[in-house]
Amino acid sequence: MVHLKVEKLSISFGGLKALIDVSFGVKKGEIYSIIGPNGAGKTTVFNCISGIYKLDGGRVFFKDQDITLLKPYQVAQAGIARTFQNIELFAHMTTMDNLMLGRHIKLKTGIWAGATFLTAKSRAARQEIRNREKVEEIIDFLELEAARNQFVVNLPYGTQKLVELGRALALEPEILLLDEPSAGMNLEEKENLIFSIRDIRDDFGITVLLVEHDMNLVMDISDRILALNYGQVIAEGVPQYIQKHPEVLKAYLGEG
Description:
4-stranded antiparallel sheet; 9 helices; 6-stranded mixed sheet; 38% helix; alpha/beta; globular; 10 strands; single chain
């Protein structure tokens, strides 16, 4: 089953063509990576999928529904969450508070409608308990117990990246877009991240799209890989195929 389909994405910035007819499909439960040199358009693809950029052309489908014109919060509500290349956390709030903010889309609207004060208060209390239980599950899953009550600004960069991953998971998405998740991590943290991403797919059933510069991580974890250069697709396939593809070697690895 194709979970996410991108058709002929095209976008320009000031006359510079950032993406040119980029098309691909991601299967449900897949770990799908997008690679390419700096400026190839990798993060731009994510920004198009998540509704941050308005396209010049092309369409994005999620579960066969056209989401091209949705705003970012609507894309998140639909079931697509993301992390950012540059950390987008509230630095002077705790890990717990940041993850709880990630639950905001799960809050029910109209809680007061047709209800007594006590009924509404009871609903809100149950919702608060459910949200905290979910956040505690994520903290345990990502082994962030020691960071639970610490301000994010005081955490190591690698731990901050995990907090941002946790905040995306707090949305309980069907698809997770990870933009450079291993940036700033040491070798041990990267190895743990690989296990976490696999568990996110295997245990939570979440489809993962990954933009990542660490080629060892990409080749180790990906089911399939899309290679971009100058905003265009130059190859797509399993890791073994991408590793040997002449255009990838030339454009991404500087060989050939």
